[in-house]
Every structure is written in structure tokens, then in C-alpha cells.
Specification:
Blueprint (H helix, E strand, L loop, with lengths): L4 H14 L7 H8 L3 H14 L4 H13 L3 H14 L4 H13 L3 H14 L4 H13 L3 H14 L4 H13 L3 H13 L7
Helix pairs in contact: 1-2, 1-4, 2-3, 3-4, 4-5, 4-6, 5-6, 6-7, 6-8, 7-8, 8-9, 9-10, 10-11
């Protein structure tokens, strides 16, 4: 079960950003970076038996579980991480992504909101919360989030296409067309 190089890179960044100086979990991070997620999960579970209060290890476990499609388990790991360390805003973001994968749009929106309460200008949280709002039928909130995201990151062309989709859902044909054309004219500079 190998992962795409960009997927491995994103996971390694996730694992590194979750790490803290107290967590000596280089082995699982190396295993995950090599695409050996199941081995990384086994190693993390071993470490967690000895360090159950280590939030970084719980976050890493959630990232690995998510990478292999064990999304519900990832939600549980992120929840434990947050119980141990409720200030780790990225864990709210990651759990929100997991909820979104599970089509639990309201839960996803709440987690993205919690991430944004701690990291106000996190554009990916805004963009994904917009998708959660759209999934739960709240197109006006989705448009608001995307408008705010565009103000923060006008070079992220994908945001214009996303808002175009939301505006189509709201029957705003003129606004949807304007966003679509704006997205086409801009040079892509985003990687949400």
C-alpha cells in the first residue's frame, strides 16, 4: 500500500508538525514517510502503551490511520490527542478532515471552527469548512468562508473555482461565472 510521493510528503509534514520535543517517535515517522503506514501504526501503538498521555503520538497515529483508510479509528485517535492536549489546533483540523471523509459535515464544520478559533488565518480550515457547510446545505456560510479565504490568500486559484461552485448552488450565475473566469486568469499558486 504505497502512497503517492506528495501524499507521503504531506503525511511527513503532518507527523513532524504534530511532534513535540518530548516525543521520541522517529521510527514511526520514518516508517510512514516510507509509505509503511501499517508498520508505523504498530510502532505507534507500542509507544502509546508506554506513553498514553503523549498527544503527539496520538496525532501521528491518527495521521497513519487516515492514510490507510481507517478513518473512524483516526477520528478516535485525534479525539484522544485533543483530550490530552486541547490546544493542538492542527488536531482539530485533521479530525475535521476525517469527519469530512465520513460525510459527517456538521462535525467537520465544528472541528474546522475550533481550528480557526485557535489559528484565525488558516486558509485550508476555511476552505474545508466551506465544503462542510456546503455538504450540510448551508451554501451562504460556505460562500462566506470562501470569500474570507480569498481575502487571505488571493493567489490560491482553487478558492475561486470552489466559490464558483458554491455560487452555482445558490443560483448566482453571474457571480459563479465571474469567479470561474477569475480562477482561469490567475496563475495557479496554491496547494490546499
Amino acid at each position: 500500500l504505497g502512497a503517492e510521493p506528495s501524499e507521503v510528503s504531506r503525511l511527513r509534514n503532518r507527523l513532524n508538525s504534530a511532534a513535540n520535543p518530548e516525543a521520541d517517535s522517529g521510527e514511526p515517522a520514518d516508517l510512514a514517510a516510507a509509505g509503511r503506514f501499517f508498520d508505523a501504526i504498530d510502532a505507534l501503538e507500542r509507544f502509546l502503551r508506554e506513553q498514553p498521555e503523549n498527544a503527539a503520538l496520538w496525532a501521528q497515529l491518527g495521521a497513519c490511520q487516515s492514510a490507510v483508510g481507517r478513518t473512524r479509528e483516526a477520528v478516535a485517535s485525534y479525539s484522544t490527542c485533543l483530550a490530552v492536549r486541547p490546544t493542538l489546533w492542527r488536531a482539530y483540523f485533521w479530525r475535521g478532515q476525517a469527519w469530512l471523509e465520513l460525510h459527517e459535515h456538521e462535525r467537520a464544520a465544528l472541528d474546522f471552527s475550533d481550528a480557526l478559533a485557535r489559528q484565525h488565518d488558516h486558509v485550508p480550515s476555511l476552505a474545508l469548512r466551506a465544503l462542510a457547510h456546503l455538504g450540510s446545505g448551508d451554501a451562504p456560510a460556505a460562500e462566506d468562508d470562501l470569500t474570507r479565504a480569498i481575502l487571505l490568500a488571493p493567489d490560491y486559484t482553487r478558492l475561486f473555482f470552489m466559490r464558483s461552485r458554491v455560487r452555482q448552488a445558490r443560483q448566482d450565475v453571474v457571480g459563479a461565472r465571474r469567479d470561474f473566469e477569475e480562477g482561469l486568469q490567475r496563475k495557479p499558486a496554491d496547494e490546499l
